[in-house]
Design brief:
Pfam family, one: ABC2_membrane_2
Radius of gyration: 20 Å
GO molecular function: ABC-type transporter activity
Protein name: Membrane protein
Order of helices and strands: HHHHHHHHHHHHHH
Strand content: under 5%
Structural class: mainly alpha
Helix content: over 70%
Keywords: Membrane, Transmembrane, Transmembrane helix
Transmembrane segments: 20-39, 51-75, 110-131, 137-161, 173-196, 245-269
Number of helices: 14
Number of domains: 1
């Protein structure tokens, strides 16, 4: 455990010094603040709770930005050290390969979590001023917590990516493709199939089930399904995702998308030749 803690601490410090990651964290804070003011503006005219509208907007922001931030942190965690020769030196110490992977996962998740909590926390302070009497603060807190979890999912996926190629450039390209597939292309393909199917096979229940195969959609489902005002602010999408089955399915999806890639990363790195 001591070795894991030391590795996690090192990864945390390296992450918060990464200029690309710091830039993305700053963008998260700026966009969150912008959506706090601009995204909640229509609530007064349509009678929807201001905090609920903002939570829906921030959910979409998290889906696009947090996976990218996580992959920026983790795509070269293993292959980068192998290229620099520091991994061979590290493994001369009494540390197992699985401890290296788990330590990097914990450290990078904590770093990403700190950036996420800071960005959404600053936005939350302004929301506290704009909507102090809202009854939907638990939905906002669930958003912050699940956003940290979403980051952990993509850190684990990034570690799998980092263990596959021999060069950092190939890992970067693969990370971008993975982000594009999960955040953009999967939903486009699913919606295209839904339109072509004309509800003959893909009904609402099948559609929601297919969403669970994508961690980004599972995250969105979890945050839009749990609170009535947030479902109302999300419109028909939120209503279709309502119910305890949607919540439990989203949680199970996020759990498996965390544990399975992390286990796969350990397996790949254990068999990788340095």
């Amino acid at each position: 455990m001591k070795a894991i803690a030391i590795l996690a601490s090192k990864e945390f410090c390296d992450g918060i010094r990464n200029r690309w990651f710091l830039g993305a964290a700053g963008a998260l804070m700026i966009f969150a603040l912008g959506l706090t003011f601009v995204g909640s503006a229509p609530s007064g005219s349509v009678g929807v709770d201001r905090l609920a509208v903002t939570t829906v907007s921030l959910t979409s922001l998290a889906v696009f930005l947090l996976p990218l931030m996580a992959l920026l942190l983790s795509y070269d965690a293993l292959v980068g050290e192998i290229e620099r020769g520091t991994m061979s030196l590290l493994l001369t110490y009494p540390v197992a390969r699985w401890q290296v992977v788990v330590g990097k996962f914990i450290g990078q998740t904590f770093g990403l979590g700190a950036a996420t909590i800071t960005g959404f926390g600053v936005a939350g302070l302004f929301l506290l001023w704009l909507a102090p009497d809202s009854a939907n603060w638990h939905g906002y807190l669930l958003l912050v917590g699940s956003s940290v979890w979403l980051g952990a999912v993509f850190v684990a996926i990034g570690l799998v990516i980092s263990g596959l190629p021999q060069q950092r450039g190939a890992a970067a390209a693969l990370a971008f493709i993975v982000w594009l597939v999960f955040v953009v292309m999967y939903d486009m393909a699913l919606l295209g199939g839904l339109v072509a199917d004309q509800a003959a096979i893909i009904g609402p229940s099948v559609f929601n089930f297919l969403l669970l195969f994508n961690p980004a959609d599972a995250f969105r489902m979890f945050n839009l399904a749990g609170v009535e005002d947030i479902r109302a602010a999300a419109g028909l999408l939120g209503a279709d995702m309502a119910g305890g089955l949607a919540l439990s399915g989203a949680l199970m999806s996020l759990f498996f998308w965390t544990t399975l890639p992390l286990g796969l990363a350990v397996f790949i790195f254990h068999r990788k030749s340095l």
